[in-house]
Amino acid sequence: MTQTRSRRPRVCGRTGVLGDCALTVLGALFFSATAQASESELLSLSLEDLLNVPISTASTYSQSQASAPANVIVLTAQDIRRYGWKDLADALRTVPGFQATSDRRYQYLGIRGMMPPKDVNSRVLILINGQRVNENIYGSAVLGGAFPLDLALVDRIEIIPGSGSAIYGGNAMFGIVNLITRTGRDFSGGEAEVTLGTHGRKSLRLSGGQASGDTEWVLSASGLHDRGGSYWLRDFRPDSMTPAASDAENWKRLFGQWSQGGWTAQLIHGNRLKHVPTGPDSSITGDPYNRDRDIYTLGQLQYERPLDNGWMTSRLFLGQFDFSNGRRDSFYPMLTEAVLGRRVDKYVDSEASGRWWGGDHRVLYTGFAHHSLLMGVEFQADTRQSFRMRDTLAARGIPIADEESTDATQGKRVGLYAQDEWKISERFSVTLGGRVDRYMAGDSRDATGFSPRLSAVYAYSTAQTFKLIYGTAYRPASPTEVKYNPVRPERVRNLEALWQHRYSPSAQGSLSLYHDVLSHPIEPDPSFDLVAKAGEDPSLNGAPVRVTGLEYSLLYNLPRRIDARLSYTWNRVRQAGQAPDRAPAQALKANLWVPFMERWWFSAEAQAVSASRAGQGTDRVAGHAIANLGLGYTHPGLGLTVQALLANAFDQRYNDPLSRPTSQVVGPENSVTRTQLPQDGRTWSLRLTKTF
Known about the structure:
- This protein is about 5% helix and about 55% strand.
- By secondary structure, it is mainly beta.
């Protein structure tokens, strides 16, 4: 059984995590690139092919990556297969400037040092084929097992760091992630996939698709069961391990898409149950009653057609989100034994339910010479935003009292946006745009926001491109953030200078310098007593957060179809004169893929992150470096692919900082607070995919 121990993580060598340890791992990866490789086209996209992949997320219409008015990063289906990423968090960890942490409930995304306290991914907009995944209760977008789409169904992931509210409105503050799914033509038959792994992890996916003329369809169903591992959490349970079942996870997913002519219909559904072993919100560590359930249902109907001088797109969408949480409070048994002389348990059950629908209509007009004019309107009605919490007191398992509270709200938003891309010359273009959003909820969330956008793109030569990008984004508080206190909307301003250089037909480098300012960040009240009033969570507007940083990335096709990627990120993040929690200053990442013996390939990833702070600056989380290794085999004649993967292959012990400290009562007059959490050691998985 793989165990995760909560002792201090090892830091390799005197020079720290970005010294000896990272250099050793990265050196080993690139040394292996000298191995013999075949000339086969095994899962091959050249660098030229990758850079020519058209993208649509930057402006909602098709553009080349070089001409898009944004810093665009693309991960393809080829990347997903090569490295065996199991979920969206795995894929985004490889992106320059992105980090993903876990508290064994959810995975949380930070971009360029921006990861405010208790952020639930509400400042990153995640889309599936252009439809929002962010729900209307917390504004969150999930990444791991709760994400409702299998990564194997994705054709490409378009990623834009920085603000994007000038086109997309709220949530697009720190970045946009748009998953474009595979079509019926990408399947042309069926596909079955079985995965086995550590902790009894088992998953099954059955997918199929077909294309005939202008009609295409895709259907997919999948499920997972993971019995979970056991973990030493010495601060809460010094003498024993958490029960394995307290970390179990199960999910089911459905996906369907049909298109004909200009019409496309899509349905996505995900249902996840996750047991939580870590004792969040003052609950008892390892108690089997602690669990979360997340249910997402997303649907959309889209129609698009060409115009005499442009393009028109109309869409109707709807969404449904249901969350339920159960926990057994650690405070009540201690209190009641001291006061009443007998143990009384307190069970807390909470539910959140969101329903929304809406539509958008946009027109791209190219009738003016050298101009591409985009205009659009979007509407969303939040027909349900409800919360319910029930406390049940039980003595020896027999209920003796209960209390229930319910809150329900509704709201709607309307957005108008316009953008003009002016191609001044063959080498120089300017994009100017903006969006006005009106939020109407009948409470302190009512607000109007304007988000402008300005960018200039200059192609100095066929090998070099310069971009200067400015934008702002605006986000009003979610219903949960104004439940106890009214708070002001928050705003981010982003300025970025980007230089892209094609060194050779097989190598491209990218250097980005950026400066971001987050004003009025909505944060949890740091003075609030988490133990005495668990379940309540008032918010306030914090001090501005300022980020200055740089990123450098290199894509390189080595001889014999070997693919290598390297990136380095440096950030300086300050809030009230000091570094905030969960803001590592440096990150170094590398990916390597080596085909050999015609049908085999080897993959490797290395990710090194420097130290950061936690617990409102009271604790230090040591940096770490981990490596993931894979070995794959494909037989095109049989339609068979087998892949073996080792995550954290060298079994490094490391912690992730928590989004907010977790407290638990461990004695009549004693409570402990956790600010960081140990992560998995070495884990393995074996994946078999059969096409037919």
